[in-house]
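hey m, so remember when u said the tokens were messed up on ur end? i reran from scratch. heres the input so u can diff it against urs
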Amino acid sequence: MAIEKMSSKQKEILTWWCPNSPDCEKEAIICDGAVRSGKTLFMGISFVLWAMCSFSDMKFGLCGKTIVSLRRNVVSVIIPVLSDLGFRCRETVSKNMLTVSFGGRENTFYMFGGKDEGSAALIQGITFAGVLLDEVALMPRSFVEQACARCSVAGSRLWFNCNPESPGHWFYREWILKAGERNALRLHLTMEDNPALSEEIRRRYERMYTGVFYQRFVLGNWVMAEGRVYDFFDDSFVKPVPEGEAESYYISCDYGTVNPTSFGLWGLYGGVWHRIKEYYYDSRRAGVQKTDEEYAADLAAFAGNRNIAAVIVDPSAASFIQVLCRRNFRVIRAVNDVIGGIRYTSDLLKSGRIVICDTCNDAIREFSMYVWDTAAPGDTVVKKHDHAMDEIRYFASTVVRRLGEVPGAIAVERK
């Protein structure tokens, strides 16, 4: 894999630690900014080059939100480049370990996922000569601080890489704003800092994002989320129900007892998922609460004679899931990553891969009323007018993104 062009900032990422660099005395580097700016690739290569030039027979940490994302975004990308440069790279998947050797030196890079607060325990007890934290803004503070604390070898350095989040995010406040105090080099990158990115691809990303996500991922700014969540959604995104039978059907469900319950019926037509029908019951408005059994009966009537591949349900609705399983519905507990799910749902709507039909009045109403909570720290949505919004997000994250669009690829959970 050849790197034909480099921007000045990409070169700086590669060389900041070299003895003749004006930044060689820095103890950390922070690269933040727009997506597709090349920061992940150059950070990964530079990290390994620095490790191999500075140490031998040492341990290093490679950290991502998950080990799967770390392998996909970092390890699988840097290995071909390092191999072309003459490094010998040997990955031991069972031990989440990468061994790199060159010129008589050998070092070991251990992979860790920092997805939640419990992840900090995974990294305790090991000593590193350096650590790279990819997507650091998506990791809990406890994990990041534990990873940094593991770097007690003389000459060890810290490497941070992320896309922007809220300006109230702890990493922005504690590291980016205090980069000077922490003796860290901060490099802010945009898409223009990646000469390998064509103008056509840049325009594609500009079209892909809107609102706060455009500000963060295209412009690279740390900005607060405010206004409508789906600020681009209007009547042009609402389509008639296609004629004929769909190739596959799913139902997404956000279950509530006091709060409204929302079902969405999804049909696949020519590779595009259409939300062709909805059920929306507000017990406060109706003055009558329904039981799990009554909602399950309503869902069965809602499905009709269609062959439903699976029902995607809020994972917290344990009792309702059990009732659906007893009725022989295939149930999948929804992926409930709110912010990631909103981003992906936005992408699917804007690219036309999912469509809201004109029969879904309550969903259309919620799209206009679903807003960010500017009074809350970080990225939070107001917990109102969010029931159809939640189950649409469940479907996008669980079926379209995680399990694939081919019905045969779906693994059914019946817990």
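this time it looks ok to me. The longest strand covers residues 272-281. if urs says something different then somethings off w ur setup not the seq
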